[in-house]
Specification:
alpha/beta; seven-stranded mixed beta sheet
């Protein structure tokens, strides 16, 4: 199936399920279950159409933690959401106005941010998640980055750790090999999200940043079959 047609299919399913599932928005639990069902449907379609399987490696984070994740495509978002017990995502502001998707994102406790660097953004992020339970997922690079490509990491994750005391767990992926920016699909193969070790939130910010970024980059390159930098 051509990638554009597949995109129409999965977003069409999202639209239909989004409308049918509106009553589920009355409950956090049912809303989460409905969204995870959508993830499962996408995974099965990927396997049936392109031979793309999905898997999770490492210990799945539990409790109140910060997850610093590599972002290569929508697929890694779906894998992480499906794997976590109570995921809360930081996402770009414009996505919150997307029909259906934005409604469910708000209900799940996602926090919109302006991706443009500006003074006070980290403080606003900390305040937005004050008292929030569950696994807070942050993409420190702020955008999708193709396998092997580079982009700077922002320090919001370390400031969140410093302010909340929550431990940081990195997450690597190779999802961009199979679901590229622009929606191009390519298979067969296995799309992986790999969770890493737990770094204490009270580590010095520079050390925490170095350890987190190093682990994400090394593991993501390995998953993509690339040589270490």
């Amino acid at each position: 199936m051509p990638s554009p047609l597949f995109a129409v299919l999965i977003y069409g399913v999202m639209g239909v399920m989004g409308v049918i599932g509106i009553p589920a928005l009355l409950s956090d639990d049912w809303s989460r279950r409905w969204k995870k069902l959508y993830c499962k449907i996408v995974f099965r379609l990927l396997r049936a159409v392109y031979g793309i399987r999905v898997t999770v490696e490492g210990e799945v984070p539990r409790g109140d933690v910060l997850i610093a994740a590599k972002h290569q495509s929508l697929l890694d978002v779906l894998i992480i959401y499906h794997a976590l017990e109570k995921p809360r995502f930081v996402m770009k502001r414009e996505l919150m106005w997307t029909p259906v998707f934005g409604l469910y994102a708000r209900r799940s406790g996602a926090v919109p941010i302006d991706r443009r660097p500006r003074h006070g953004a980290a403080k606003e992020l900390v305040e937005a998640f004050e008292g929030v339970k569950g696994q807070i997922v942050i993409y420190p690079q702020g955008t999708r980055v193709a396998p092997g490509a580079t982009a700077p990491y922002r320090r919001g994750i370390t400031r969140m750790a410093e302010a909340t005391g929550r431990p940081v767990i990195p997450a690597a992926t190779n999802s961009g090999l199979f679901w590229a920016k622009g929606g191009r699909m390519q298979g067969p193969g296995t799309a992986v999200v790999r969770f890493g070790p737990t770094f204490a939130g009270d580590l010095p910010a520079a050390e925490l940043m170095t350890e987190t970024v190093s682990w994400i980059e090394i593991e993501s390159r390995e998953l993509a079959g690339l040589e270490p930098l």
